[in-house]
Write a structure and sequence with these properties.
Blueprint lengths: L7 E6 L1 H5 L7 H20 L3 E7 L9 E5 L5 H11 L4 E5 L6 H11 L3 E2 L4 H8 L1 H10 L8 E2 L12 H7 L1 E5 L9 E3 L2 H14 L6 E5 L4 E9 L4 E14 L2 E9 L6 H14 L5 E9 L5 E7 L6 H7 L4 H10 L12 E4 L13
Parallel strand pairs: 1-2, 1-4, 2-3, 4-5
Antiparallel strand pairs: 6-9, 7-8, 7-9, 10-11, 10-13, 11-12, 12-15, 13-14
Length: about 350
């Protein structure tokens, strides 16, 4: 970090910052991205941090930051590189989907420009961006985690160890490196699942990236975690609002800290995950299912800010951005947890949702 009276941080929420300026904007990811962007910028501004960012010319210009518009046809990485070179930036704080290695690539860009990274290590990003690798690491550490197999590699569904369970409760298909509920599908009928498998093999250039999992009934929970290299603190536990509409999973929001009763169990799981994937530093999140017998089963780990961050400043006695900066820059674990709760309801999507070409 430079020796200046005020920090200058380049904040990039990939979807709203122009990463998809030449593409259709995925409605759900854009909504969540804009809310996270604005919450983080507000928290950093309250700390007296100077923020530099960019914005897709189709979305609202951010407040609390100096922002540059990105238009269709622009080389967005060149735009970002110029921003990093021209503004005497101290550090990069990036919120980006894991899909296609985007978050990992953004980390590499910051490293090439010699800038500090506010977030998880490159290794942790790699280990959690691929759900199959995350599952393997956590299984090896003895952590209860939702099993998965690459759909293309399944020759006979009845050979799967969890076939009987899935036959009763259903099947889930999702990308190995997806973000949120994008391209995540539910199949109750094995005939429809088999037909889907045939279609994707014909129509997708890379069908091996799709995972098959058993559907696990229970409450969809998540946690917000802040870690140093050696310590872990779950600062809030959330109830997720996830529904199945026309065979697809849809995320409608969260009860931020409405799952606070399960913080002790979440803390134990977070410590075990952190031990299995030690590069998880700063803020990270994890999704899990609370089953009928009161057990937590890990679903995925997100090595970045997650949507419930939006409500943390309302619930924490300390600025959540300050807690994250302290964890990374000072190796100081937060002393507080969220108090009370906050219902976050995402607005209905107004943009066309992309679908797999099947």
């Amino acid at each position: 970090m430079h020796n200046k009276s005020r920090l200058k941080i380049w904040v990039c929420e990939y979807v709203s910052a122009g990463g998809l300026a030449s593409h259709v904007l995925p409605a759900s990811l854009l909504q969540e991205g804009l809310l996270m962007r604005d919450a983080l910028l507000a928290d950093l501004s309250a700390l007296g941090v100077d923020c530099i960012t960019s914005h897709d010319s189709r979305v609202a210009v951010p407040v609390n930051a100096q922002s540059l518009p990105v238009h269709a046809g622009d080389d967005v990485y060149a735009v970002w590189h110029n921003q990093l070179s021209a503004h005497d930036i101290d550090a990069c704080w990036v919120i980006a989907p894991e899909t296609g290695g985007i978050l990992f690539e953004m980390h590499e860009m910051a490293q090439r420009d010699g800038l500090s990274w506010i977030g998880c290590s490159a290794e942790a990003i790699r280990d959690t961006s691929a759900k199959s690798r995350m599952t393997d690491l956590c299984e090896q550490a003895g952590i209860p985690v939702l099993p998965s197999v690459f759909l293309e590699q399944v020759n006979a569904f009845q050979d799967l160890a969890w076939y009987d369970h899935a036959l009763t409760y259903g099947w889930v298909v999702k990308p190995d490196d997806g973000a949120g509920c994008e391209f995540t599908y539910y199949f109750k009928n094995i005939k429809e699942l088999s037909e889907f498998k045939v279609k994707i093999n014909k129509n997708l250039s890379n069908p091996e990236r799709l995972l098959l999992q058993p559907y696990l009934p229970g409450r969809a929970l998540s946690m917000s975690v802040i870690s140093t290299s050696n310590e872990v603190k779950v600062v809030a536990g959330h109830q997720q609002s996830v529904h199945i509409q026309e065979g697809a999973f849809v995320f409608n929001g969260a009860g931020v800290n409405e799952a606070a009763d399960y913080l002790p169990a979440m803390q134990q799981m977070a410590e075990r995950v952190h031990h299995a994937i030690p590069g998880l530093v700063g803020y990270w999140g994890a999704d899990m299912i609370l089953t009928a017998d009161g057990q937590l089963t890990l679903v995925e780990v997100n090595p970045r800010l997650t949507t419930p961050y939006i409500g943390l400043s309302k619930l924490c006695a300390e600025n959540p951005a300050q807690m994250i900066l302290d964890a990374i820059l000072k190796q100081k674990i937060p002393a507080v947890q969220a108090q009370s709760s906050f219902t976050l309801t995402l607005p209905s999507p107004t943009l066309e949702k992309e679908t797999l070409p099947v």
